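Protocol step 4 of 6: structure prediction from sequence.
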Amino acid sequence: MNISLYDVSVWVLPLVIAITFHEAAHGFVAHRLGDNTAFQLGRVSFNPLRHIDPFGTLILPGILLLSHSPFLFGYAKPVPVNFRNLNHPRLDMVWVALAGPVTNIILALAAAFAFHALPFVPAEAAKWTADNLKNAFLINIVLAIFNMLPIPPLDGGRVAVGLLPRFLAYPLSRLEPYGMLILIGLLILLPMAGTQLGLNLDVISAILRTLTGYVIGALLFLTGNA
């Protein structure tokens, strides 16, 4: 696979912005709702170096890209939140978790609206700008949908723990230390095993692709790009 400097320039910038804003949003909402942990550690910041995880942000997506994985994913350093400091711990945990994906949808909307300004971009920069906007639109939607999977420590898992009755929320919360292993198993190992058995076990990726397609269509319609 030949990856040019141009490819890097139109993928890395929107990816870094998407991840940085996602993580900063978690910290900002936690700060507003009573927990200063992330704020004191400098994680309410638009400096991407404060949020990048070498393995989750760079190595893992690179491995998946080079191995032609059907669904690309990665993660940043989790923003530290002490939920006991929040004004209303269970409910506020939901708002803190939702802040990241909601921010990504807002960024996707902004990218889609920005397409209407492309005629005003100088001709020599138009293609590069368009490719960055297109990738920003896609990356932010994928990041939002992926993070809403109901598996801790993903945001969807935190939302589920905050909303479910305690007898269901507690066992789900206990999965958090194993969440990434579960995801790798569902997204990589299970499809690989299915291939060996002649079965299509790539169910999670299929669900994610379907949901992503619906959201892409909805946002393109809302922004007049359909």
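Step 5 (inspection) to follow. The chain has one domain: 5-222.
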